[in-house]
What we know:
Layout: H1 8-21, H2 24-33, E1 34-40, E2 52-58, E3 61-66, E4 71-79, E5 82-83, H3 93-106, E6 122-127, E7 135-139, E8 151-157
Helix pairs in contact: 2-3
Amino acid sequence: MDWEPCSEAELEKLIADSVAAMHAPARSLWDLVRIQPAKWQLHPWGDGGDGFWVVGILGQQVVWYNDIEDGFNVSRYEALGVIAEYWCNKDELHHTMAALLQQVQTGEAPGRFGPPSSDNLTQHAVVSGVGETCKRVQCAAANQVNTSDRISSVVMKPAPG
């Protein structure tokens, strides 16, 4: 895989731009969870770039930047320095923090896109709005849907035929 890891300076710019766009409650949460960016391991996806940048910790979860997919994600960790789950959302930090705030308030985790797979050509996402019945939406690519669209779960499924 050809991947140019994000520099710490590039990451700091992404963070600063997104912090400026955060609503006050998400900004307050960010102020509580943020850490000095540090590279954490996530085998095998992060091996080529010496890991991924973790920028926040909340309980047993980390906020991290997936510079393969150019987006922030929230994942479990089981040991300091090791991310336990790979997600490939393409969200800006302010969207990730808004979703994390919603999770803190409601106990419901936001939707996520899982690891790439060569035999999964189409991704299907279940999208729900406030008070709506869930509906199935077929996406040609993961970047056409993000957590701001209130994804509640993602299922990888081979494309028809």
